[in-house]
Specification:
single chain; Alpha-Beta Plaits; Rossmann fold; nucleotide-binding; alpha/beta; 2 domains
Length: 362
């Protein structure tokens, strides 16, 4: 559906994007991650035809954005971070205006406008002036204009930015539904949103794609060691000694109560979970009620799965394993690992710092 081939956008005194190369198949929802100034918005603007790349090519459903820009744009729906709305217009008037711009035949406009209003939950607000809408409803109108012409590809730049939790849930559900019939490229700073919505993630840093993969497989591809946490019943020194002697084990680290509490809190997926710092403090001051058990983190340097060997060794010594959990990097860990080397004095080429936009406003 989308092919971005070795695309670069170069500026004389500012960092651009370099050799961006990826493709998207029909029906994919792809998350586009990166720190501020990494090049996300610049890349999206080139895909949608708002910026011309210095090098490389962009194809939308086989159509070159350079050779057939009008036809290629007809296949794209774009929601910038700030929705392109006219605050003095009503929702219906605005969508009729967009329908005219998109070349939707007059006889089909009423039907299409009615469909997107129903799909985006705007019924009963058709005559409402956009200025008077909440930010969540403005975002819905922005999505409505993006899908009005039934595009094959949707480009969404920070669609949940600045929304309250209820609005975020509603917009995410809308994106899931849109993903059933559209290919979606979604830029976001909210990392849990990637796990919730996307079946693939791209991470960009300093203008280059540094990772491309499925969210649930990223940890394995990035992990330098295989780690498993254990809770074992038995004498402390004997358990630690046995674990260190297991073939393939390169490290055994005993976990203190604070580390255990932080791990448990960080692993929780409950939105109401206790903050890791709070849980750690509580664990540190709580009485020790785990007499006779040892909590450890066991690692393998060559990424070999050591769980079976550990199980049989401890079972042979009659030290019961009360808990065993394979540890993996979170998406937050991976993101930080790939992007924290960004130079602080580099000039961003993203969002409002886009050089062409700055120049046009001068």
């Amino acid at each position: 559906m989308l092919e971005v081939k070795q695309v670069s956008k170069l500026y004389e005194n500012q960092r651009g994007v370099h050799g961006i190369d990826f493709s998207m198949s029909r029906g994919e929802i792809v998350g586009f991650l990166g720190p501020n100034g990494a090049g996300k918005t610049t890349t999206m603007r080139m895909i949608t035809g708002y910026l011309n790349p210095t090098h490389g090519s962009i194809l939308v459903d086989g159509l070159s954005m350079a050779d057939h820009p009008k036809k290629a744009r007809q296949k794209i729906g774009y929601l910038p971070e700030t929705p392109p709305l006219y605050p003095e217009m009503s929702i219906t008037a605005y969508l009729q205006f967009i329908a005219d711009l998109r070349g939707i035949p007059v006889k089909e406009q009423k039907r299409r406008i009615g469909e997107v209003i129903e799909r985006l939950g705007l019924q009963g607000r058709e005559r409402q002036i956009i200025r008077s809408l909440s930010k969540g409803y403005k975002q819905r109108v922005g999505l409505a204009q993006a899908i009005l012409h039934n595009p094959d590809l949707l480009i969404l730049d920070e669609p949940t930015s600045g929304l309250d939790p209820k609005q975020i849930i509603e917009i995410r559900q809308l994106i899931r539904e849109l993903g059933e019939n559209h290919t979606v490229l979604l830029s976001t700073h909210i990392l849990p949103e990637i796990n919730t919505l996307c079946n693939r993630v791209l991470i960009i840093n300093q203008g280059r794609i540094v990772l491309d993969g499925q969210p649930d497989q990223l940890a394995n591809s990035m992990g330098e060691t295989f780690e498993v946490s254990l809770e074992v019943k038995g004498p402390r020194e004997a358990v630690l000694s046995e674990l260190r002697s297991v073939p393939g084990v390169s490290g055994v680290k005993e976990l203190n109560p604070v580390e255990v509490a932080v791990q448990a809190a960080a692993a929780s997926t409950d939105n109401e979970a206790v903050e890791p710092e709070t849980a750690a403090i509580s664990a540190a001051v709580a009485p020790d009620d785990t007499d006779g058990t040892v909590k450890v983190l066991v690692s393998s340097a060559d990424r070999e799965d050591i769980r079976e060997a550990v199980f049989y060794r401890l079972a042979e010594r009659r030290y019961p394993i009360l808990a065993m959990k394979k540890e993996s990097l979170s998406l937050e860990d991976i993101f930080l690992k790939l992007t924290t080397n960004e130079s602080l004095d580099s000039s961003p080429a993203d969002a409002s710092d886009d050089p062409e936009e700055v120049a046009s406003n001068a």
